[in-house]
Amino acid sequence: MESVNGLNQVYGTLHCGTDPGGVCDETNGLGSTVPCSGSTCQGNYHTYAIEVNTKTNPQTLTWTLDGVAYQTLNNNTLGAAVWKSAVLDAKFVLLNLVSSTIIRSSVMYCRD
Questions:
Q1: Residue 2 is assigned to a structural domain of this protein
Q2: pTM, to two decimals
Q3: Which of 41, 54, 90, 97 is deepest in the core (most CB within 10 A)?
Q4: Pairing of strands 30-34, 48-53
Q5: Looking at the 3D structure of the chain, how many domains does it have?
Q6: For 25-40, how does the pLDDT look when each residue is reduced to its tens digit (9 = 90+)?
Q7: Domain interval for residue 18
Q8: How many CA atoms does the CB half-sphere of 76 hold within 13 Å?
């Protein structure tokens, strides 16, 4: 999840499988965006979460902002092997704060 370029938007994206292409459309990934409501994303407190639910059929991976879901993917969409690798296998959490990043050209402000 990220908010970039001072835009009042949060992006949630799953990257998985084969690059380029694959079930996650790499290098784009499977993503969705939502604006922060009530107050802007920048300089305000918001709750961000990603929830894996393995007790439902299909199993789901859901992104939320302030308790409201804005994207859900499921194991049927990704297929068993990719779901296991991307969602169920052990992971490390990386918290990254950057002042500049590369994101889809549709939201990047580029200089010549």
A1: no
A2: 0.79
A3: 41
A4: unpaired
A5: 1
A6: 999 999 999 999 889 9
A7: 10-88
A8: 5
